[in-house]
Amino acid sequence: MKEDESNWLSRWEEQLPSPDELMPLSQTLITPHLALVFDLHNPNNPQSTPLPAPTPSSLAHPSSSEFENSGDLGSGAGGDEPARTLKRPRLVWTPQLHKRFVDAVAHLGIKNAVPKTIMQLMSVDGLTRENVASHLQKYRLYLKRMQGHSNGGGGLASSDPATDHLFASSPVPAHFLHPVRPGQDHFMPFVAPPQSGRPIWVTHPQLQQQFHQQRQVGQVGHFGSPHSNGQFEHSFMTRQQAGPRMGAPPPYGEDVESGEANGRRTVLTLFPTGDD
DNA sequence: TCGTTAATAT
DNA sequence: GATATTAACG
Protein backbone atom coordinates (compact mmCIF):
# COMPACT_ATOMS: atom_id res chain seq x y z
CA MET A 1 0.00 0.00 0.00
CA LYS A 2 1.93 2.90 -1.13
CA GLU A 3 -0.09 5.63 -2.45
CA ASP A 4 1.37 8.56 -0.82
CA GLU A 5 4.43 8.92 -2.82
CA SER A 6 3.40 12.21 -4.13
CA ASN A 7 1.49 12.90 -1.05
CA TRP A 8 4.54 12.69 0.99
CA LEU A 9 6.00 15.68 -0.58
CA SER A 10 2.82 17.58 -0.48
CA ARG A 11 2.20 16.62 3.04
CA TRP A 12 5.61 17.60 4.03
CA GLU A 13 4.95 21.12 3.15
CA GLU A 14 1.84 21.12 5.20
CA GLN A 15 3.56 19.54 8.04
CA LEU A 16 6.21 22.10 7.98
CA PRO A 17 5.94 24.59 10.71
CA SER A 18 4.05 27.58 9.65
CA PRO A 19 5.69 30.93 9.97
CA ASP A 20 3.12 31.79 12.50
CA GLU A 21 4.11 28.98 14.67
CA LEU A 22 7.70 29.75 14.44
CA MET A 23 7.25 33.38 14.88
CA PRO A 24 6.53 33.19 18.51
CA LEU A 25 9.61 31.18 18.87
CA SER A 26 11.79 33.10 16.60
CA GLN A 27 10.81 36.25 18.19
CA THR A 28 12.44 37.47 21.21
CA LEU A 29 11.71 34.92 23.78
CA ILE A 30 13.41 36.92 26.35
CA THR A 31 11.11 39.08 28.22
CA PRO A 32 12.19 42.59 28.91
CA HIS A 33 12.29 41.78 32.50
CA LEU A 34 14.40 38.77 32.00
CA ALA A 35 16.70 40.70 29.79
CA LEU A 36 17.23 43.14 32.56
CA VAL A 37 17.98 40.40 34.94
CA PHE A 38 20.68 39.22 32.68
CA ASP A 39 21.74 42.62 31.79
CA LEU A 40 20.76 42.06 28.24
CA HIS A 41 20.00 44.75 25.85
CA ASN A 42 19.26 44.85 22.22
CA PRO A 43 21.71 47.17 20.63
CA ASN A 44 20.55 46.12 17.26
CA ASN A 45 16.94 46.88 16.95
CA PRO A 46 14.26 46.51 19.46
CA GLN A 47 11.45 46.52 17.02
CA SER A 48 12.65 47.27 13.60
CA THR A 49 14.06 44.00 12.57
CA PRO A 50 11.33 41.45 12.33
CA LEU A 51 13.50 38.52 11.61
CA PRO A 52 17.16 38.88 11.04
CA ALA A 53 17.21 35.43 9.53
CA PRO A 54 20.20 34.38 11.50
CA THR A 55 22.72 32.18 9.91
CA PRO A 56 25.12 29.69 11.33
CA SER A 57 27.39 32.56 11.90
CA SER A 58 24.93 34.21 14.13
CA LEU A 59 24.39 30.92 15.70
CA ALA A 60 27.89 30.59 16.84
CA HIS A 61 27.81 34.18 17.52
CA PRO A 62 25.31 34.87 20.20
CA SER A 63 26.43 38.37 20.03
CA SER A 64 26.60 40.53 23.01
CA SER A 65 22.94 40.14 23.44
CA GLU A 66 23.42 36.87 25.16
CA PHE A 67 25.34 36.19 28.25
CA GLU A 68 29.02 35.98 27.99
CA ASN A 69 30.54 33.26 25.96
CA SER A 70 32.74 31.10 27.93
CA GLY A 71 33.73 32.50 31.08
CA ASP A 72 37.27 32.53 30.23
CA LEU A 73 38.52 35.83 31.46
CA GLY A 74 38.20 38.30 28.85
CA SER A 75 39.52 36.12 26.22
CA GLY A 76 36.79 37.53 24.14
CA ALA A 77 38.33 36.23 21.04
CA GLY A 78 38.50 39.02 18.62
CA GLY A 79 34.81 39.00 18.17
CA ASP A 80 34.44 38.41 14.50
CA GLU A 81 36.00 35.05 14.42
CA PRO A 82 34.31 32.88 11.84
CA ALA A 83 32.26 30.05 13.08
CA ARG A 84 35.17 27.82 12.60
CA THR A 85 36.70 27.27 15.94
CA LEU A 86 33.68 28.42 17.79
CA LYS A 87 31.67 25.80 19.47
CA ARG A 88 28.12 25.70 18.37
CA PRO A 89 25.62 26.44 21.04
CA ARG A 90 23.59 23.66 22.40
CA LEU A 91 20.97 22.66 19.95
CA VAL A 92 17.50 22.16 21.20
CA TRP A 93 15.42 19.75 19.26
CA THR A 94 12.05 21.29 19.02
CA PRO A 95 9.05 19.20 18.04
CA GLN A 96 9.14 20.74 14.63
CA LEU A 97 12.75 20.05 14.16
CA HIS A 98 12.29 16.55 15.38
CA LYS A 99 9.37 16.16 13.09
CA ARG A 100 11.55 17.00 10.21
CA PHE A 101 14.04 14.55 11.45
CA VAL A 102 11.49 11.78 11.60
CA ASP A 103 10.24 12.73 8.22
CA ALA A 104 13.65 12.44 6.77
CA VAL A 105 14.24 9.10 8.36
CA ALA A 106 10.90 7.89 7.18
CA HIS A 107 11.71 8.76 3.65
CA LEU A 108 15.12 7.35 3.77
CA GLY A 109 14.16 4.21 5.54
CA ILE A 110 15.88 2.70 8.47
CA LYS A 111 18.38 1.34 6.09
CA ASN A 112 19.58 4.62 4.81
CA ALA A 113 18.79 6.49 7.90
CA VAL A 114 22.28 7.51 8.68
CA PRO A 115 23.39 10.76 10.18
CA LYS A 116 24.83 12.13 7.04
CA THR A 117 21.91 11.29 4.85
CA ILE A 118 19.44 12.50 7.35
CA MET A 119 21.31 15.69 7.79
CA GLN A 120 21.39 16.28 4.09
CA LEU A 121 17.76 15.57 3.75
CA MET A 122 16.88 17.88 6.51
CA SER A 123 18.89 20.57 4.90
CA VAL A 124 19.00 22.50 8.04
CA ASP A 125 21.59 25.09 7.90
CA GLY A 126 23.92 24.79 10.78
CA LEU A 127 22.88 21.32 11.63
CA THR A 128 25.88 19.10 11.86
CA ARG A 129 26.25 15.42 11.45
CA GLU A 130 27.04 15.15 15.09
CA ASN A 131 23.77 16.71 15.96
CA VAL A 132 21.85 14.27 13.90
CA ALA A 133 23.91 11.35 15.05
CA SER A 134 23.28 12.20 18.61
CA HIS A 135 19.63 12.61 18.08
CA LEU A 136 19.45 9.49 16.02
CA GLN A 137 21.01 7.60 18.82
CA LYS A 138 18.38 8.72 21.18
CA TYR A 139 15.68 8.15 18.67
CA ARG A 140 16.72 4.59 18.09
CA LEU A 141 16.63 3.94 21.75
CA TYR A 142 13.20 5.36 21.87
CA LEU A 143 11.96 3.06 19.15
CA LYS A 144 13.53 0.11 20.74
CA ARG A 145 12.03 0.91 24.01
CA MET A 146 8.67 1.40 22.47
CA GLN A 147 8.72 -2.02 20.99
CA GLY A 148 9.70 -3.70 24.15
CA HIS A 149 6.92 -2.04 25.95
CA SER A 150 4.25 -2.63 23.45
CA ASN A 151 5.13 -6.20 23.36
CA GLY A 152 5.82 -7.66 26.72
CA GLY A 153 2.73 -6.06 28.03
CA GLY A 154 4.42 -4.83 31.09
CA GLY A 155 2.39 -2.78 33.41
CA LEU A 156 3.44 0.59 32.16
CA ALA A 157 1.66 2.38 29.46
CA SER A 158 3.10 2.11 26.02
CA SER A 159 3.15 5.80 25.44
CA ASP A 160 4.66 7.77 28.17
CA PRO A 161 5.02 11.37 27.28
CA ALA A 162 6.95 11.80 30.39
CA THR A 163 9.43 9.28 29.19
CA ASP A 164 10.09 10.81 25.86
CA HIS A 165 8.71 14.25 25.61
CA LEU A 166 10.03 15.10 22.27
CA PHE A 167 9.72 11.78 20.58
CA ALA A 168 6.18 11.36 21.66
CA SER A 169 5.40 14.54 19.87
CA SER A 170 6.05 13.11 16.50
CA PRO A 171 4.24 10.17 15.05
CA VAL A 172 6.51 7.29 14.44
CA PRO A 173 6.16 5.58 11.09
CA ALA A 174 4.95 2.05 11.39
CA HIS A 175 7.73 0.47 9.46
CA PHE A 176 10.03 1.97 12.00
CA LEU A 177 9.25 -0.57 14.57
CA HIS A 178 9.63 -3.65 12.54
CA PRO A 179 12.83 -4.87 10.98
CA VAL A 180 13.59 -4.37 7.37
CA ARG A 181 11.73 -6.33 4.79
CA PRO A 182 14.07 -8.81 3.16
CA GLY A 183 13.46 -9.17 -0.49
CA GLN A 184 11.74 -5.91 -0.79
CA ASP A 185 13.38 -2.62 -0.63
CA HIS A 186 11.01 0.15 -0.54
CA PHE A 187 13.17 3.03 -1.28
CA MET A 188 11.80 6.33 -2.25
CA PRO A 189 13.73 8.29 -4.78
CA PHE A 190 12.88 11.21 -2.79
CA VAL A 191 15.17 14.10 -3.39
CA ALA A 192 15.30 17.75 -2.88
CA PRO A 193 14.04 18.27 0.57
CA PRO A 194 11.35 20.82 0.95
CA GLN A 195 13.60 23.37 2.31
CA SER A 196 10.80 25.72 2.68
CA GLY A 197 10.48 24.82 6.27
CA ARG A 198 12.28 26.61 8.89
CA PRO A 199 13.27 24.48 11.79
CA ILE A 200 13.77 26.46 14.84
CA TRP A 201 16.89 26.50 16.73
CA VAL A 202 17.02 27.47 20.24
CA THR A 203 20.31 28.12 21.71
CA HIS A 204 20.67 28.39 25.34
CA PRO A 205 24.03 29.51 26.42
CA GLN A 206 23.36 28.96 30.01
CA LEU A 207 19.83 28.62 31.03
CA GLN A 208 18.32 25.32 30.31
CA GLN A 209 14.69 25.68 30.03
CA GLN A 210 12.48 23.17 28.53
CA PHE A 211 9.33 24.29 26.97
CA HIS A 212 6.88 22.46 24.89
CA GLN A 213 5.49 24.17 21.94
CA GLN A 214 3.63 22.53 19.19
CA ARG A 215 0.51 20.82 18.17
CA GLN A 216 -1.16 22.27 15.15
CA VAL A 217 -4.55 23.73 14.97
CA GLY A 218 -7.50 21.72 13.99
CA GLN A 219 -6.66 18.87 16.20
CA VAL A 220 -7.19 19.72 19.71
CA GLY A 221 -8.84 22.89 20.63
CA HIS A 222 -6.76 23.06 23.62
CA PHE A 223 -5.04 26.28 24.12
CA GLY A 224 -2.44 26.65 26.70
CA SER A 225 -2.16 29.83 28.55
CA PRO A 226 0.78 31.89 27.48
CA HIS A 227 2.09 31.76 30.89
CA SER A 228 5.57 31.29 29.89
CA ASN A 229 7.84 31.86 32.73
CA GLY A 230 9.86 33.86 30.36
CA GLN A 231 13.04 31.97 30.47
CA PHE A 232 13.71 31.30 26.89
CA GLU A 233 16.75 32.21 25.05
CA HIS A 234 17.53 33.56 21.73
CA SER A 235 16.12 31.54 18.93
CA PHE A 236 16.55 31.59 15.26
CA MET A 237 15.58 29.74 12.22
CA THR A 238 17.73 28.21 9.65
CA ARG A 239 17.81 27.08 6.10
CA GLN A 240 18.43 29.37 3.22
CA GLN A 241 22.01 28.80 2.57
CA ALA A 242 23.14 29.81 -0.82
CA GLY A 243 24.43 26.57 -2.12
CA PRO A 244 27.31 27.31 -4.38
CA ARG A 245 26.64 24.07 -6.09
CA MET A 246 23.42 22.39 -6.79
CA GLY A 247 20.58 23.91 -8.61
CA ALA A 248 19.63 26.55 -6.23
CA PRO A 249 16.52 25.40 -4.47
CA PRO A 250 13.51 27.42 -5.34
CA PRO A 251 12.67 29.37 -2.28
CA TYR A 252 9.07 29.28 -1.55
CA GLY A 253 7.20 32.49 -1.35
CA GLU A 254 7.73 32.58 2.27
CA ASP A 255 7.94 35.81 4.00
CA VAL A 256 10.35 35.88 6.71
CA GLU A 257 9.07 38.88 8.39
CA SER A 258 5.62 39.90 9.39
CA GLY A 259 6.05 39.18 13.01
CA GLU A 260 2.46 39.13 14.02
CA ALA A 261 0.68 39.44 10.76
CA ASN A 262 -2.21 37.38 11.90
CA GLY A 263 -3.65 37.47 15.26
CA ARG A 264 -5.71 34.38 15.41
CA ARG A 265 -3.83 31.27 14.78
CA THR A 266 -1.39 31.05 17.53
CA VAL A 267 -1.71 27.70 19.02
CA LEU A 268 1.20 27.57 21.22
CA THR A 269 0.54 25.05 23.83
CA LEU A 270 2.99 25.00 26.60
CA PHE A 271 2.09 21.43 27.11
CA PRO A 272 1.92 18.51 24.76
CA THR A 273 -1.78 18.23 25.20
CA GLY A 274 -1.96 15.24 27.35
CA ASP A 275 -4.34 13.43 25.13
CA ASP A 276 -2.62 10.19 25.53
C1' DT B 1 35.74 9.05 6.43
C1' DC B 2 31.54 7.60 8.23
C1' DG B 3 28.55 5.34 11.60
C1' DT B 4 27.81 3.68 16.15
C1' DT B 5 28.39 3.41 21.05
C1' DA B 6 29.83 5.10 25.48
C1' DA B 7 31.15 8.74 28.34
C1' DT B 8 30.98 13.43 29.61
C1' DA B 9 29.07 18.10 30.17
C1' DT B 10 25.38 21.34 30.66
C1' DG C 1 17.70 13.64 35.90
C1' DA C 2 17.27 14.62 31.15
C1' DT C 3 19.29 16.04 27.01
C1' DA C 4 23.03 17.35 23.90
C1' DT C 5 27.97 17.27 23.02
C1' DT C 6 32.39 15.09 22.82
C1' DA C 7 35.42 11.21 22.50
C1' DA C 8 36.53 6.50 21.30
C1' DC C 9 35.91 2.53 18.61
C1' DG C 10 34.60 -0.51 14.39
From TrEMBL:
Keywords: Nucleus, Transcription, Transcription regulation. InterPro entries: Homeodomain-like_sf (IPR009057), LUX/BOA-like (IPR044841), Myb_dom (IPR017930), Myb_dom_plants (IPR006447), SANT/Myb (IPR001005). GO terms for molecular function: DNA binding; DNA-binding transcription factor activity. Residues 41-83, 241-276 are annotated as: Disordered. It holds the Pfam family Myb_DNA-binding. Residues 56-65 have a biased composition (Low complexity). Its main location: nucleus. Residues 93-144 form the HTH myb-type domain. It is found in: Nucleus. Transmembrane segments: none annotated. GO terms for cellular component: nucleus. The keyword Transcription applies. PROSITE patterns: HTH_MYB. The keyword Plastid does not apply. NCBIfam families: myb_SHAQKYF. This is HTH myb-type domain-containing protein. It comes from Kalanchoe fedtschenkoi.
